[in-house]
Amino acid sequence: MRNVARKQQEPKASSGTLARPYRIEEQIGYLLRRAHQRASAIFQVTIGDPNITPTQYSSMVKLNEYRELSQNLLGRLVGMDKATMQGVVRRLKERGLVDSRPDPGDARRTLLSLTTEGQRIVNRLLLNGPAVSRETLKPLNGAEQRQLLDLLSKIV
Amino acid sequence: MRNVARKQQEPKASSGTLARPYRIEEQIGYLLRRAHQRASAIFQVTIGDPNITPTQYSSMVKLNEYRELSQNLLGRLVGMDKATMQGVVRRLKERGLVDSRPDPGDARRTLLSLTTEGQRIVNRLLLNGPAVSRETLKPLNGAEQRQLLDLLSKIV
DNA sequence: CCCATATCGTTCGTGTACGTACGATGACCC
DNA sequence: GGGTCATCGTACGTACACGAACGATATGGG
């Protein structure tokens, strides 16, 4: 394999100060993006249903806990803004996993709930949920796993 | 404010075992998604140019280190697959920040480089890069910041 | 030299993610 | 009870993210 372009040139040296050089690979935002990519990939192959995404899963889990929620409140509970939530809910409704009815007490709201099929599916997926987390955290030992979850909780 | 729908019902109790209950808010994938969202939001308001996204920034930083890179190799260096890279590069080229030429030694490849304008911009953004990371890690003390970066590096 | 295989970049489709703007509705206060 | 302000859901535009399929090109083995 020609690899002329593979390592043509080393990165330019950092500035001459004693300060730590700025490497994109060591920045928190970059690492979070990569870690999130990996976690999503593991979810996809481990959760046991290729048609369910992480956000759809967390939405369904929340709807399984609270039996009925407005779209906006569900969004706050799972950390999605209303525009994003709109698309997630639309797709779940199109597949018959989620149902909706107008809130009888507030005409602005739509109450969402899982259909019987949605309940059946989320209960099946919940069996694999722990395996997804276990696989994602596999490179770390027990203490490190707890540390990471703790530190991430603090910055969220 | 009516809050009938706000806390209608507590989440159902977990199963009766001693095992830790499965809470979506404690799962690594969920936390990574939320943390990444927050980091992106901080990037957007701190980097100093509302038109530059995190992925565009890391691509430009890499192109500033290596003077010329194929699109595919750049993607591997910044952790984006080729389909995603295609869009990022297209937008940077449309704005005149990146230029391309055919690789004289390999007709499959396109060599990318920063334009003078692109270099000017990335050097300005690099001044704010440390502030983005500092702000994102602000809830943690120094030791915790290093731990988090270390743990994330291990699972990426 | 030729063929199987791999890589490179593009395109298409689906799905987050969010800013902004909008109309409808509700809450609050004078 | 009427006006102001907030909230709810929707719509549109832009941007990542990736699987799958594709044509062009390169490589390595027989």
The biggest sheet of chain A amounts to:
3 strands, antiparallel
Largest interface: A-B, 66 and 66 residues
- Count of separate DSSP helical elements of chain A: 6
Give the N-terminus to C-terminus distance of chain A in angstroms: 44 Å
Instruction: Report the portion of residues of chain A in β strands.
Output: 5-15%
What proportion of the residues of chain A is helical, as a percent range? 55-70%
Write the CATH fold name of one domain in chain A.
Arc Repressor Mutant, subunit A
Given this structure, which CATH class of one domain in chain A is correct?
Mainly Alpha
Principal-axis shape of chain A: globular
Mind telling me the CATH superfamily name of one domain in chain A? Winged helix-like DNA-binding domain superfamily/Winged helix DNA-binding domain
- Based on the coordinates given, report the CATH architecture of one domain in chain A: Orthogonal Bundle
Structural class of chain A: mainly alpha
Uncertain segments of chain A are 1-9
Structural summary, described in words:
2 copies of one chain form a homodimer. Chain A has a domain at 27-134: Winged helix-like DNA-binding domain superfamily/Winged helix DNA-binding domain (Arc Repressor Mutant, subunit A). A 3-stranded antiparallel sheet of chain A has the order 1-3-2. The first copy, chain A, contains 6 helices and 3 strands. Mean pLDDT of chain A is 90; it is low at 1-9. Chain A is globular. Chain A is mainly alpha-helical and 156 residues long. Chain A has helices spanning 28-46, 54-65, 71-78, 82-94, 116-136, 142-155, and strands at residues 69-70, 98-102, 110-114. Chain A binds a DNA duplex (30 and 30 nucleotides) through α1, α2 and α4.
